[in-house]
Specification:
Chain A is mainly alpha-helical. Chain A has helices at 2-5, 17-21, 42-69, 74-80, 82-105, 111-131, 133-138, 144-161, 165-170, 176-179, 190-199, 210-222. Chain A is built from 12 helices and no strands. Chain B is α+β, with helices and mostly antiparallel strands. Chain B has helices at 3-10, 16-24, 27-41, 56-77, 82-92, 101-114, 117-128, 276-306, 325-360, 367-395, 407-414, 424-437, and strands at residues 134-137, 153-157, 162-166, 174-175, 186-195, 198-208, 221-225, 238-242, 245-248, 258-259, 265-266. Chain B starts with a helix and ends with a helix. The chains are: A mainly alpha, B alpha+beta. The interface between A and B is large, with 79 and 86 residues.
Chain lengths: 223, 438
């Protein structure tokens, strides 16, 4: 951010800070028009994640600057704004994840797989916005009606994914031995295997546990 | 086959095998992975007693037996590609860490990245043949992620051309390294280097800690297991106290920084190179997060199609619990996360390999970005995955509590990744430093 602010051109995953450093990214007022119009368009959603990251980095940097102007040392100013800094990092990482997921879709040729992964990517992206709605609303990146639209859309996506849920986890292709879970068995025969597993518990190695003879029986004699 | 889960599979709208190939990287990689899995799964030498019913000492014992078998079999089958070794290991020790993890995952890579060619000649083949079993001892009882605060000292003595290593305080005792307690006979120790009266910061030293033949601790070494933990039952995480332990000058890893025989110090081209192994592990952790979420969501979603409970419409049969919107709202974002993190994990591995290649060619320009990205994504993915596993456990109702579900073990084995190789908040602040200052 500071290098960008000093006119240097950043490259790589942080290149979005070039605009922030030059004051081209500003939180919008609530009344102004939001940046994203179509909440179904992944590329514009990636863009709002990017803007959210840029705004939060800028906010943290400005808060540190202000503290330093109030004669705080840089180290104290840093500690005084650590919550904002962690939020900025979190937003940056969230943007990277959303961007990489969306980029991956571009490499997938199979129509069926592309379609179901696009639905998943959209769910991941919208769910992230819903969980962090305060950031997006405060920055004016999305409006309140759009947040409501997102809630509805998330419910649509859940129903859309429902028929493919088992196939999507099957695609991870874990064997029963590597998963090692009675509940997650490939054949779905959960209850009989759970009963079998419980029977193998060491507490079941004898019909009467030794603690009965050692403690309960003598106790009973004393009462 | 349970009829409900059978019907689910019949209703899918895409080809599962095609997606598996994408997750593995290619159809050839899927084929090879399955070959490796069947080698392990059909091998009676890897059959085991259910660890859920064993004591910790029995679990450690069983894990060491399997790890020893694993090394023999890897040789027998000529498996040497790191990805294939990783796959084989994950089948031998599903859902859990094992006693040789630090040897394979940190000791050997540190040698490869930071040893000179002479040091490679001395240490690598003995380590490859497990005469040397190594670990990576960085964290101390009183100091973790803040590396400049580490107290262990390595003071160079030019008269004997040796380093003298010490744990000057109780808080400086090395604490937590996997395999340190009982398994390893060597440790790469991170210590503050003192030479010619000056401290030059943290450097890595190869320190013998147990006799290679008898496995008894060497003079000046106090070593042991740190006791039961939240998960990691198969691993002997250990402590190490160094009392005037002398090692030859040649045991400092000197590919980059050096100490000359007279004690003169030669700086490394980048101070971050000492922490290269941590960057490697952080890059891998992103993929590990994806695996943990993928396993948990597989368990919870399959179970949610088999489990029937209550009623949506009065008088109708009990529906599959996956038909409840609340269950979908819990599980499908977790499923989406599993896919997202898998692709990010693939990207991190490729990026790590590309930038490491550049570093080996002398180009360090992208090292700071790799540091920042691996730290941030390690924290971001482990935090999210940790919560997601718990969501999956809760989604399985009462049965999620049973160890038979595997969810408690996935959770306890995964949770330490939020603190090891860098505590997550500190990692996020390191990324923030890069974002603000870069």
């Amino acid at each position: 951010y500071r290098l960008a602010k000093n006119g240097q051109q950043l490259s790589g995953i942080v290149s979005y800070l070039n605009d922030a450093g030059r004051g081209r990214v500003q939180p919008q007022t609530v009344s102004s028009r939001p940046i994203v119009v179509d909440v179904n368009d992944l590329s514009s959603l990636v863009e709002v994640y990017k803007l959210r990251a840029a705004i939060l980095v800028e906010l943290a940097a400005k808060n540190i600057q202000q503290d330093m102007q109030r004669r705080k040392s840089e180290e104290d100013a840093w500690n005084n704004n650590a919550i904002d800094l962690v939020k900025a990092s979190d937003a940056h990482c969230h943007y990277v994840v959303v961007k990489l997921f969306t980029d991956k879709l571009g490499e997938i040729g199979d129509t069926g797989v592309h379609s179901v992964l696009s639905t998943l990517a959209l769910l991941y992206t919208l769910h992230g916005i819903a969980l962090n709605s305060g950031d997006f609303l405060q920055a004016g990146l999305l409006s309140v009606p759009q947040m409501l639209q997102i809630s509805v859309r998330i419910k649509d996506l859940l129903s859309q994914l429902r028929p493919n849920a088992v196939a999507l986890v099957d695609a991870f292709n874990f064997t029963d031995r590597t998963l090692n879970s009675v509940l997650g068995r490939y054949d779905g025969n959960v209850y009989d295997n759970m009963y079998e597993w419980a029977r193998r518990s060491p507490l079941n190695s004898t019909e009467v546990h030794k603690s009965f003879h050692k403690y309960l029986k003598p106790l009973r004699a004393k009462l | 086959m349970n009829p409900d889960i059978k019907r689910e599979r019949e209703n899918a709208t895409f080809n599962v095998e095609t997606l598996t190939n994408i997750l593995d990287g290619s159809p050839q990689k899927t084929k090879r992975r399955r070959e490796i899995e069947s080698l392990v799964l059909n091998d009676p030498d890897f059959w085991e007693d259910d660890p859920n019913f064993l004591s910790r000492s029995e679990r450690y014992d069983q894990a060491v037996r399997k790890s020893a078998q694993m090394i023999l079999k890897l040789r027998e089958y000529g498996i040497s590609d790191p990805d294939e070794i990783y796959c084989y290991k994950n089948c031998v020790h599903p859902n859990r860490a094992e006693p040789l993890d630090l040897h394979l995952g940190m000791f050997l890579p540190t040698l490869l990245n930071q040893a000179t060619s002479e040091q490679m000649d001395r240490f690598f083949m003995p380590a490859w043949n497990l005469e040397i079993i190594g670990t990576y001892a960085q964290t101390e009882m009183g100091h973790g992620t803040h590396l400049r605060g580490l107290e262990t000292t390595a003071t160079y003595d030019p008269s004997t051309q040796e380093f003298v290593l010490n744990s000057p305080t109780i808080s400086s005792i090395k604490w937590w390294p996997g395999g340190l307690g009982k398994t390893s006979n060597h440790a790469i120790v991170l210590a503050q280097l003192y030479t010619q009266g000056k401290c030059h910061g943290l450097h890595a030293f190869i320190v013998p800690i147990r006799d290679i033949k008898t496995h008894e601790p060497l003079p000046g070494i106090v070593v042991g297991d740190i006791g039961p933990k939240f998960g990691f039952n198969e691993i002997d995480n250990g402590f190490l106290k160094l009392e005037n332990v002398r090692i030859p000058r040649e045991n400092m890893l000197m590919k980059y920084a050096k100490v000359e025989p007279d004690g003169a110090y030669v700086k490394p081209p980048s101070s971050k190179l000492t922490y290269g192994t941590m960057v490697f592990i952080r890059s891998l952790i992103v993929g590990t997060s994806a695996k943990a979420v993928a396993k948990s969501s597989t368990i919870a979603i399959r179970y949610s199609t088999v489990r029937r409970q209550s009623e949506i419409r009065p008088g109708q049969p009990e529906p599959q619990i996956l038909d409840y919107q609340t269950q979908q709202y819990k599980l499908f974002p977790v499923l989406a996360m599993a896919y997202a993190f898998t692709f990010v994990g693939q990207y991190m591995t490729q990026t790590y390999q590309r930038i490491t290649g550049d570093i080996n060619e002398g180009d360090f320009s992208e090292l700071p970005e790799l540091h920042a990205l691996s730290a941030g994504l390690k924290a971001f993915t482990t935090w999210a995955a940790n919560s997601a596993i718990e969501v999956c456990r809760m989604s399985c109702g009462g049965h999620g509590y049973s160890r038979s579900s595997a969810l408690p073990d996935i959770y306890t084995e995964f949770t330490p990744s939020c603190t090891y190789e860098g505590e997550n908040t500190v990692m996020m602040l390191q990324t923030a430093r890069y974002l603000v200052k870069s």
